[in-house]
Design a protein that fits this description.
This protein is α+β, with helices and mostly antiparallel strands. It has a single domain (9-92), classed as PAS domain (Beta-Lactamase, 2-Layer Sandwich), CATH 3.30.450. 25% of the residues lie in helices and 26% in strands. The protein contains three helices and three strands, in the order ααβββα. The chain has helices at residues 16-19, 27-39, 86-92; strands spanning 44-51, 58-67, 74-80. The two termini are 25 Å apart. The mean pLDDT is 88.
Length: 95
């Protein structure tokens, strides 16, 4: 469930599986991947397709997700980059 998104406030209170529906993976898989990445001790990276703010055309996005200790929340931040790989970003962030 999206608790907040400062760039896309219309996503608030929507299940993540219904928000990231732009393929090639189904939203349910991206949601599961996101939860798994966030549960890692130092968080983790996921990649998916999602439109940038103000656009309806999905672009490749990579996001870092981290569970907020002591809460039911996950904090995430992403970047639209066609070349950054989850593997390289993971090494850079100490995964």
């Amino acid at each position: 469930m999206v608790a907040a998104n400062p760039v896309r406030p219309e996503l608030k209170a929507k299940p993540i599986a219904q928000v990231v529906t732009y393929g090639p993976k189904p939203g349910e898989q991206i949601g599961a991947d996101s939860c798994a990445a966030a549960r890692r001790p130092h968080g983790g990276w996921v990649e998916y397709n999602f439109p940038e703010a103000g656009s309806s055309r999905p672009e490749r996005k990579v996001s870092y997700l981290l569970a907020a200790q002591g809460t039911p929340y996950v904090v995430g931040a992403g970047v639209y980059d066609p070349t950054a790989t989850v593997e390289v970003l993971g090494r850079l962030s100490g995964e």
